[in-house]
Automatic annotation (TrEMBL):
<dbReference type="GO" id="GO:0005737">
    <property type="term" value="C:cytoplasm"/>
</dbReference>
<keyword id="KW-0963">Cytoplasm</keyword>
<feature type="domain" description="3-hydroxyacyl-CoA dehydrogenase C-terminal">
    <location>
        <begin position="42"/>
        <end position="110"/>
    </location>
</feature>
<dbReference type="GO" id="GO:0042413">
    <property type="term" value="P:carnitine catabolic process"/>
</dbReference>
<dbReference type="InterPro" id="IPR008927">
    <property type="entry name" value="6-PGluconate_DH-like_C_sf"/>
</dbReference>
<protein>
    <recommendedName>
        <fullName>carnitine 3-dehydrogenase</fullName>
        <ecNumber>1.1.1.108</ecNumber>
    </recommendedName>
</protein>
<dbReference type="GO" id="GO:0006631">
    <property type="term" value="P:fatty acid metabolic process"/>
</dbReference>
<dbReference type="GO" id="GO:0047728">
    <property type="term" value="F:carnitine 3-dehydrogenase activity"/>
</dbReference>
<comment type="subunit">
    <text>Homodimer.</text>
</comment>
<dbReference type="Pfam" id="PF00725">
    <property type="entry name" value="3HCDH"/>
</dbReference>
<keyword id="KW-0520">NAD</keyword>
<keyword id="KW-0560">Oxidoreductase</keyword>
<dbReference type="InterPro" id="IPR013328">
    <property type="entry name" value="6PGD_dom2"/>
</dbReference>
<dbReference type="InterPro" id="IPR006108">
    <property type="entry name" value="3HC_DH_C"/>
</dbReference>
<comment type="pathway">
    <text>Amine and polyamine metabolism; carnitine metabolism.</text>
</comment>
Amino acid sequence: YLLPLVEVVGGERTAAEAVRAAMRVYESLGMRPLHVRKEVPGFIADRLLEALWREALHLVNDGVATTGEIDDAIRFGAGLRWSFMGTFLTYTLAGGNAGMRHFMAQFGPALQLPWTYLPAPELTEALIDRVVEGTAEQQGARSIAELERYRDDCLLAVLGAIRETKARHGFAFAE
């Protein structure tokens, strides 16, 4: 299977060492294990996909876009960045040199606007701090400018790979 993600979750009586051992096994196989810290329906990746799927169905149902247009919005927009940066680092860059805290202050209140069907959590200081700390850890010592260069280089590489692969298989780039 081509997707390297595997989500590892232990039950209430699972020893921490058993989870770590499973993570090591998956890593040794070239997989990217994620430790799911508590049992939830759908784990992490599927929950995120389901939220996007639900919103996409609303957009189709309301006549806002076709399924192809929605797929193109992902394939030629956010999906490219997500493939190498994920959601939080993408939005960290959207905050400019001030990073995630600025992004949350500027755009966070819009989560309460009724333009989506998905209810948003209350943006408490604790939540904002967790998000800011998490993205700061992801960012490490890299500056926003360094991450922007990385993002741009990855976008060009991904787009080039898509273009070449589609051409080899007889597809036009926009298909």
